[in-house]
Amino acid sequence: MIKATFHGKKVLFFLLIFFLSISFSRDNKLNVIFDTDMSTDVDDVGAQALLSHFADAGLIRLLAMGNSSSLTVGGAVIDAVNHYYGRPDIPIGVWKGKILTNESSYSYFVADAFEHDVSATAADVPNTVGLYRKALAEAPDSSVIFVTVGFKGNMVSLLDSYGDDISPLTGMQLVQKKVKGYYDMAGVYLSGHSWNFWNDPQATQELLSRWPTKMVFVGDDVGLSIITGKPLYNDALVAQNPVALAYRKHVSYPHGRCSWDPITAYIGVLGLDPYFWLSERGCNTANSSGDNTFIVGQDCDHYFVKYDNRDDAKIVNTLDSIMLLPPTAVKNDGTWPPLPDECYATGGAAYELDPACTVSGNTCTPASTGEVCVVRDNHCYVKNNSVTCSCTADTCITDLGSPIVLIEKGLLPEVRMLNGKVNINYSLKKSAQVQVDVFDASGRLTAALYNGHQAVGQQNEIWDGNDMNGRTAPRGVYLARIKVNGSLNTVKFTRF
User: Fold this and answer.
1) Peptide bond preceding 400 in cis form (omega within 30 of 0)
2) Fewest Cβ atoms closer than 10 Å to its Cβ: which of 60, 79, 123, 336?
3) Could you tell me which of 90, 116, 95 has the C-alpha nearest to residue 32?
4) Chain segment 413-440, per-residue pLDDT in tens
5) Both 133 and 221 in a single domain?
6) Whole-structure pTM value
7) Is 492 exposed, middle or buried (0-12, 13-18, 19+ CB in 10 A)?
């Protein structure tokens, strides 16, 4: 046992996502249908992970998911990821048409290793048409977006569908009535040859010429230089996380993977700012080989995303941070995932969990020069012998000396959005001198929220998103630091 006076930080593992630029109420969530060719590439899994965490954050409601490839085990992979994130009841459909690509380097590993209810043969899985019709029919008008990162057959089949016992409306009418946006990973701009278009060129031509709502395309060039997934390669994470296993088994290992599909999910839910912008309005067209050409100025409601590669590192950090989040959805039995150990003892020294320290595989990089860190269970611990750490073998539990106590389920502090502002809630078990600040990822003070004496009980501090000069702070990773009678309590989060 290592015993000393506690002067360290009370650190949480969870990276809390909340959104300053978008405010959703419980009754105004964005409804999302995710259509993916879960087969050859692994960034589809990354996009599904992002959408799962956006749902955790209360931004979206996931109505349905579909596989647009012919890989029969693809539906089982989608279901396994949904099980992992605590959403085993999301309806899943599969493509039942002509044979498209059906190869994968990771899908069978994921289906074999993780729980799923959907058959790996897809024999008992419905096609997507009825599934999407039902999801649309039950949704409020103009409340649904499609995030599509695969082939176009499912979408054309939806448009072609007739009225039935689900709805008297045709597929075209349902889309016109219920869908507010369509975000698609496909194409080269202004023209070129793209995987998601040329695999089914007839469906591509049909979709581009007939889809009745605004369409936003993320082209092959966007995401090509944004390489994510490397932090998921950690052995401990691979053993428990289907997203990590998929990235580890994909042919791109150990180099990470281009982020086409995660960026499409990101833009569909969070919007373009501050990294991306839209082209002028125009028409996206395709020839009989699936090659596309975007004609600027034509009278279609089509746009493609533009990006200049200047923010690669920032976007990689944002996407990887989200994908590394553990599931926070309530499990079927009502339990929440446990927090990691607050401290770790080895070799006669104590190490403290530190969210400002970064992990890549089995290597850690501390936030401050001169600090010593170790990686344990994909978490970074920084050497701090002033931490009171009670250890039995490899199990260490911090003896909390701070007067701060965490509230809400799963020992998470409560962070909520109210009118676009960040609310940081915590509770004191005795009166104390308290200082609450927000720092950026480099350690610079961004906002000073409170400095004074607070009484026992629940407290609330609000960050309006502005820096010390009154300017809107950029998106990225931040640290909320609550200093209680000299004891630091830090939470890392990503501001979008």
Assistant:
1) no
2) 123
3) 90
4) 455 545 557 777 777 767 778 888 887 7
5) yes
6) 0.67
7) buried
